[in-house]
TrEMBL record:
This is NACHT domain-containing protein. Residues 1-18 have a biased composition (Polar residues). It comes from Colletotrichum sojae. Residues 19-34 have a biased composition (Low complexity). PANTHER family: AMELOGENIN, NACHT DOMAIN-CONTAINING PROTEIN. PROSITE patterns: NACHT (PS50837), WD_REPEATS_1 (PS00678), WD_REPEATS_2 (PS50082), WD_REPEATS_REGION (PS50294). The keyword Repeat applies.
């Protein structure tokens, strides 16, 4: 008789196994467990944890906390008006109203409005599924349609783990590539649509902020929103600037809530915000009541119903003492762009204008917000505060010390960032633009600020970042950089040392090829970098394996493969002439050519009444075939399989009557 499965009885009593198979007979008190089932369950949990880790591009809940913290906290009175707005109430309460578009100009408080709506929905819809995502154009992890879906699905799986079944089958085959390869959008959108049909997601609310900051795949994302708002019970609430292309896509199914059309409510919210912020400022700076009143009323009159304008002025006032504040506030012009222009002029008039402009230029072109530590790797710092890497020339040396972070360096960079007007803000040592409109202003060629921070053009700035990245990587990367000693270690089991030698160069490691691509133009110095014995060639000869190992440790191997494909294209563009070889021998024009099946031979038919057979490797003519009159013209050639004999298709009459031709073997 077969023994069946193994059981463990953790109490008194007896256990009877009568026949083969899974047995559940337990007489007496105690617990009985199927060991195989336990092992399977634990494996399943581990597998699902890996799936979630690979799916996660960000946790939108953390993004919400960061955004609220960066903006000084969420004030209830700055958004509560929308909860009584008829358009919002209809979207919330009417099951047939499934898509609401909140639109408004920059700085009107759309993001904080959505943060408030999220809090209200979580409080009033307890137990019902809710997912959201905050797009951010300055961060490559947050500015694609695929990232939006990954973020939304990540939150839904956290609330309803059973939904993982919609992903598991494809994930078991593709692994992490399911979420990252060139077909990721197609795969994720199909999974998402199937998921929304699940009974666990009936009436789910999906919120996406700043659609205008979705730089890649916006059209596909909008189409998905309109499709699912018709075919499922999901409710969408999205926000963006007043973009016509977004309106065109959403108009057929969406109801809109315009902040400009609700100017009175927005103005009241801005007024409350100003009152609160001036009160906090007065407390911190110990303003007199007269100074506080004077500043508050000036902001009331000039804010133009714009939260961001008031926030920028408050930030500037924090830099000056009370005796300057009353006069200083009067210098701030109304309007965001005019305020940005004034901030830029103040930078130009500062004691370190070039340093600030260089810092802004880097921040404007990088692919994601950088930590201060990472700035140290790509910012051209003065020599007196640069890392001493004189001992790092031999990057295979285990005594290399250029991986250490430098507290003085970080301190200097923090001070420099603070001198960049109020364009930038720092949270947890990561530098962000205070608002997308700040970056838009600096990147707008219509303003003088563009020429001030990019005097040689954007491509030159990309090249500077590329060059600095390659330099610091050459000094940092080395064999067994984490000193693991065991080449078979699994990446999942590796904890970075403290300090992490790859921490300061993580961005450079991931993006040096991207910046090289952006710098590559006909008159760019990057052309020289890509040639034989250029900087790229030298780096790859010395550090290609070190770089791949670093990418693996940073869990960036899928991206590394794509980067190398990109680099291969760049090298081909530089060094591969369109004309690879010239075959000479015909005395008249060539009418037709064809390759042999194995690609080793080329046959050419010419108006000189010959067919020539060429060796493609050497370019030598192997055979010249003749055999028809001077009146005939060869217009098509072929190579006969399997013999490889050339054949010519010829006109039999000089009149070129199309139905009078034949193949002739020479």
């Amino acid at each position: 008789m077969d023994t069946g499965n193994t059981f463990s009885n953790l109490g008194t009593g007896s256990q009877n196994v009568i026949s083969s198979g899974t047995q559940n007979n337990n007489s007496g008190s105690g617990s009985q467990y199927n060991a195989n089932t336990i092992a399977f369950h634990q494996h399943n949990q581990h597998h699902n944890a890996n799936l979630l880790a690979d799916l996660r591009v960000t946790d939108p809940r953390d993004d919400k906390t960061r955004i609220e913290g960066t903006k000084g906290g969420l004030l209830t009175d700055s958004y509560v008006w929308v909860l009584q707005n008829p358009d919002f109430c209809q979207w919330r309460d009417d099951k047939d109203q499934r898509l609401l578009w909140v639109k408004g100009d920059p700085g009107k408080g759309k993001t904080m409005l959505l943060c408030g709506i999220i809090d209200d929905l979580q409080a009033t819809r307890k137990g019902k599924p809710l997912s959201y995502f905050f797009c951010q154009a300055t961060d490559e992890l947050l500015n694609t349609a695929t990232a939006v879906l990954r973020g939304l699905i990540f939150m839904l799986l956290d609330q309803a783990p059973s939904l993982v079944s919609y992903i598991k089958k494809k994930y078991d085959i593709a692994g992490k590539a399911l979420f990252q390869d060139k077909n990721a959008w197609q795969a994720m959108s199909e999974i998402f649509k199937d998921m929304l049909q699940d009974s666990n997601l009936q009436g789910v609310c999906l919120l996406v902020d700043a659609l205008d900051e979705c730089s890649t795949g916006l059209k596909q994302l909008l189409m998905l929103m309109t499709e699912t708002s018709r075919s499922t019970s999901a409710k969408w609430l999205v926000s963006s600037r007043n973009w016509s292309q977004i309106e065109e896509q959403l108009r057929p199914v969406a109801q809109s809530l315009s902040l400009e059309l609700n100017a009175e409510s927005v103005a009241a919210a801005v007024k409350f915000y100003i009152k609160h912020e001036v009160k906090e400022l007065a407390k911190a700076k110990k303003y007199s009541s007269q100074t506080r009143t004077s500043i508050r009323h000036y902001l009331y009159r000039h804010a133009g119903d714009t939260f961001l304008w008031a926030a920028l002025v408050r930030q500037e006032l924090k830099r000056v003492p009370e005796f300057e504040a009353r006069e200083r506030v009067k210098t701030f012009p109304p309007g965001l762009d005019t305020l940005y222009q004034q901030m830029m002029q103040q930078i130009c008039d500062s004691t370190v204008p070039e340093r600030c402009k260089q810092f802004l230029a880097i921040t404007a072109v990088v692919y994601r917000p950088l930590s201060l530590n990472e700035y140290g790797s790509i910012y051209d710092l003065p020599s007196d505060i640069e890392l001493d890497d004189s001992e790092c020339e031999d990057s295979d040396s285990e005594d290399s010390s250029c991986d250490e972070s430098n507290p003085d360096l970080v301190k200097s960079l923090r001070e420099l960032a603070s001198r960049c007007g109020s364009f930038l803000t720092i949270r947890e040592d990561i530098v962000y633009f205070v608002h997308q409109s700040a970056k838009d202003f600096l990147m707008n060629k219509a303003y003088a600020a563009f020429d001030q921070i990019f005097p040689d053009g954007i491509a030159h700035q990309h090249h500077a970042i590329f060059s600095r990245s390659l330099e610091v990587l050459s000094k940092t990367l080395r064999r067994d950089i984490y000193e693991l000693r065991n080449p078979g270690s699994s990446v999942e089991d590796i904890s970075p040392p403290n300090p992490d030698p790859l921490g300061p160069v993580k961005y450079s490691c991931m993006h040096w090829i991207d910046h090289l691509q952006q710098a590559n133009s006909a008159d760019s110095p990057a052309r020289g970098d890509l040639r034989d014995n250029g900087s790229v060639h030298a780096f790859l000869k010395c550090h290609y394996l070190h770089w791949l190992k670093a990418q693996s440790l940073l869990q960036g191997m899928p991206q590394a493969v794509l980067k190398m494909q990109k680099l291969q294209t760049l090298v081909r563009d530089v060094d591969w002439n369109a004309c690879q070889q010239t075959l000479e021998g015909h005395s008249d024009g060539v009418w037709s050519v064809t390759f042999s099946p194995d690609g080793r031979q080329l046959a050419s038919g010419s108006g000189d009444n010959t067919v020539k057979l060429w060796d493609t490797a050497t370019g030598q003519c192997q055979q010249t075939l003749e055999g028809h009159s001077s009146l005939e013209n060869v217009f098509e050639v072929a190579i006969q399989e399997p013999t490889g004999d050339p054949m010519g298709r010829v006109w039999e009459k000089p009149s070129f009557i199309a139905d009078q031709f034949s193949y002739r073997k020479f």
